[in-house]
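Give me structure tokens for this 473-residue protein.
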Amino acid sequence: MQVIATSKAPESVKPAELPADLAGRIRDTQQGVYVRDEWDKGALLTDNWSARWTGTLKIDKDGEYTFYLTTDDGARMKVDGWTAIDAWVPRPPTTSEAKVQLSPGSHEVVVEYFEAGGGAVARLEWSADGINRQPIPTDRVTSDGQPGWKAEYFQNPSLEGEPFTMRAPMVNDDWGEGGPKVGDEEPGSVCVEWTRIAPDEVVGRVHSDPKCNIGLVAARSNGFHFTLLSGGVQATDGITWLPPSDASYLFLAGFGELLKINAVEAREALHTNAMAGAKPALPPYPKDAEGWVTLFNGTDKSGWKMRGGADNWKVEDGVLRNLSAGSDIHTEWTFTDFDLHVEFRVPPGGNSGVYLQGNYEIQVDDCFGQPLRETMCGAVYQRITPTVNAAKKPGEWQTYDVSFTMAGLDDNGRYIWPRVTEVFNGVKVIDDKPITIGVTGSAMSQNMLAAGPLMFQGDHGPVDYRNVRIRPK
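Here you go.
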């Protein structure tokens, strides 16, 4: 069985598929384990798409410039019509380098990329005499007379057809398993969740925003069956369309004869297994008189661990420093609801992120004086744009004070979005807003109903952190 969705009339468009192939996953899902797949349906490119970024690069002095193009999958880059990088093949995250001699003035740069499946990364950096390796700053690139790049996104991997055209401040994206939001369609969320209740059977629920038509595609081969337990819709061969609704649709799916349970029993099984493991695992050291826990002791990395990759994190003079691109770092302890205080410092062009529960990134980057956008410092990355750009100049210490409430389920088993309030350098820039759609790119987990760690992103480059404290609620 697969889940498909569209905001158009079902008969007028071929909908995109959500990767929820239950027939192929039931026997791989451990009994009693809760699984959740979520998909941002709003004009989101996921697999087999391509992109082109075009810009005019301003060079101040003559010299040799090194460009670093990191992608998953293929990419190429041209400078003034000359192909500097040509790696137009599917590949895991890989960095290609090119050294280019450039004279003062304007130079035309074109970056092309295609995504073939799995993770999606496209990042362009540079270095030169006096420039440490970093993403190319927005004020160095213009297109059509405006700062930043002209970004074109194609619904195929070969740069063909009519693209979605947007603007991008940098070529510096990690979409995780997803892709960029493009087009004019308002984003929405489609979710399918299930838990295994027998060796060959799951109980599940599917729901979305009210504008969306959901279809269940029955793969009734090999004895696979499914039945709907709510919503008053009869399962049929082929696609069973579920009318747009605020309600969820409960189902049973599996091989052979299905268990005889009702909607109440199905909802209870989902709720029980979803909430299992949602209890916080607090650090084993004491809180202060106001309930705060010091996560970074200023001396070493006790209580922290690498996510994977090169450990470039060092402790110097009471500061947790990432010296160059490598592994993310996260606490060994996990949390549910909390208040957080963290101080950070980024160099010119720097980029990092503070991940709440390891899943929701508050962006950390050099955006002093830049216009508001959903990927700037202070934003919940691609989810919530701050009301004010409160960023200081690069190289100065800055602060986040965050209050976070984790996701949950209401009395009817409906999903409740996590909420966040953020004070950035003393200015409230997000006031009790829901983090909709789901986890952000490079999240540690898709299970938003379980406790999670605090994580600092380390795969972009240098960044400093200090005075990291959390107060569990």
